[in-house]
């Protein structure tokens, strides 16, 4: 039996991981530490037994210390992060504070608790991103664990800084750490500012689908449940001090992703006539095509052209393999959003009110 502290566990990937771990490790104790900022949501943890949610900031080292002692924490799984690139461009301070200072706060607390003479077996797993590696040209090999870091946005720079701190605490102090760098995630509970939920929900309401630049940027898409299985393998079997890249094996043009969203929404309306009554403003409700909503907008600053993950290491060492291709994963995701309007509708209304 393990005692886990999961930071950011009320956010998108973190909450999916809590659901996954609870399902596969029913006897383990789980404490979630989440600041419940705009992207954190108590509702993401609904239906879970014996999961304690603590509202608090990872930068509060005294709080982390207390949780580790009170719950005899032996495993930290660190998801908490500011993660939206556009927000990092307009407000980078929060990204440095949470992603760098917050990670250091956790590492300090872990070092004090685990390396203070008790010799307690432990694991600090840090969840990072492929964006720390920068951008790839069309013919460049995919990012591997030895690719030099070249972050191009305040978000990716702050994550790179946190990665280096985790590495340093392992090599300097002997903390038992692992890091995983993932590709673009999608799936249930994703906050509606991200591409796939944003475009899906815009399609249902007849709003435009704004495509940056020429739409030819390339990303490797990873269903969040496959990501959670990969993290689980790294925690359980990964070598201390190592980094593992977790990808979905679905390297797609942004434009291809948008076209799959359009196709999937149109197919859902064709298969279920009741959707037309629920979402009358969708082009598909009126016999049209969701593709009518596509628009092209000015590219964002520092927009990396291509990401791709080489997951050879995690496959060969730990037996990881993604279970879904993108059409299958998106169909599941669309089904979840259609079945959970009560979850996403308040978030969409709040965002629209904030924009005025």
Name the descriptors.
356 residues; three-stranded mixed sheet; alpha/beta; 16% strand; Rossmann fold
Describe the structure.
It is built from twelve helices and twelve strands. The protein has 356 residues and is an alpha/beta fold. It has a domain of 232 residues: 3-Layer(aba) Sandwich (Rossmann fold). It has a seven-stranded parallel β-sheet, with helices on both faces. It has a three-stranded mixed β-sheet with strand order 7-9-11. Strand 5, helix 5 and strand 6 form a beta-alpha-beta unit. The longest helix has 22 residues. The radius of gyration is 20 Å and the shape is globular. InterPro entries: dTDP_Gluc_deHydtase, NAD(P)-bd_dom, NAD(P)-bd_dom_sf, Sc_DH/Rdtase_CS. Its EC number is 4.2.1.46.
**Count of helical stretches:** 12
Fraction of helical residues: 40-55%
Secondary-structure element pattern, one letter each: EHEEHEHHEHEEHEEHEEHHEHHH
**How many strands in all?**
12
Catalytic activity: dTDP-alpha-D-glucose = dTDP-4-dehydro-6-deoxy-alpha-D-glucose + H2O
Domain NAD(P)-binding: 5-332
GO biological process, one term: nucleotide-sugar metabolic process
Protein name: dTDP-glucose 4,6-dehydratase
